[in-house]
Automatic annotation (TrEMBL):
It comes from the Bacteria. InterPro entries: DnaJ_homolog_subfam-C_membr-28. It comes from Geodermatophilus nigrescens. Residues 130-160 are annotated as: Disordered. Residues 14-83 form the DnaJ homologue subfamily C member 28 conserved domain. This is DnaJ homologue subfamily C member 28 conserved domain-containing protein. The lineage of its organism: Bacteria, Bacillati, Actinomycetota, Actinomycetes, Geodermatophilales. Residues 151-160 have a biased composition (Basic residues).
C-alpha cells in the first residue's frame, strides 16, 4: 500500500480497491486470530496499563520504553548495583565516566519539550567509595612455610 491515491478518486473507492486487491492476492488468509472475537474492553484499564501489558506480551521491558532523560536517571540510580561486581577501581571509574559523558551529550541535544526530565551527573568519587566499602576484605595472607631443603630421594642418598 505504498501507492498514492490518484487524483479524482474518492478515498472510500481507493481504499475499497486496495482491500479487494489484497483479498484477491490472499493477504488476509491464515491470519492469527481469524474468526475469534476481539478481546473484551476493560473500562478501568488506562493507557499506561495497556502499554505495559503490550510490552510484556512483546517481550520488551517497560524500562526500555522510557524517554531518554528518564532512562538516564534510572541508569544513574542503578549504577551502584552495576559497579558492585566490577573487579577494579579503574573499571568503576570507566563506567561512571561513560555515564557522565552520555548525560553531557544529552544536555547538548535539543529536547522535545521544556518539561523533559534532565538527568544529573553521577558522583564518581562516591561510587568508588561505595565500591570500596562494599568489597569483601581481602583474604589474610597464608603463612609461608619455612624454607627447608628438599628431601633427597633414595637413589640420591646412596651416592653421596
Amino acid at each position: 500500500m505504498t501507492d498514492r491515491k490518484p487524483p479524482g478518486v474518492s478515498f472510500e473507492t481507493w481504499v475499497e480497491r486496495q482491500i479487494g486487491q489484497a483479498q484477491e492476492r490472499g493477504d488476509f488468509t491464515g491470519l492469527r486470530g481469524t474468526g475469534r472475537p476481539l478481546p473484551a474492553f476493560d473500562p478501568d484499564e488506562t493507557v499506561f496499563d495497556w502499554a505495559v501489558a503490550k510490552a510484556r506480551r512483546e517481550g520488551i521491558a517497560p524500562a526500555e520504553m522510557l524517554p531518554p532523560g528518564l532512562a538516564l536517571r534510572r541508569e544513574r540510580d542503578d549504577l551502584p548495583a552495576r559497579v558492585a561486581g566490577l573487579p577494579s577501581e579503574d573499571a568503576v571509574r570507566a563506567v561512571a565516566e561513560d555515564y557522565n559523558a552520555r548525560v553531557e551529550a544529552f544536555w547538548r541535544r535539543p529536547q522535545e519539550s521544556r518539561w523533559s526530565p534532565v538527568p544529573g551527573l553521577a558522583d564518581v568519587e562516591a561510587l568508588v567509595e561505595g565500591w570500596h566499602r562494599d568489597r569483601p576484605p581481602p583474604p589474610p595472607p597464608t603463612a609461608a612455610l619455612p624454607d627447608t631443603p628438599p628431601r633427597r630421594r633414595w637413589w640420591q642418598r646412596r651416592r653421596g
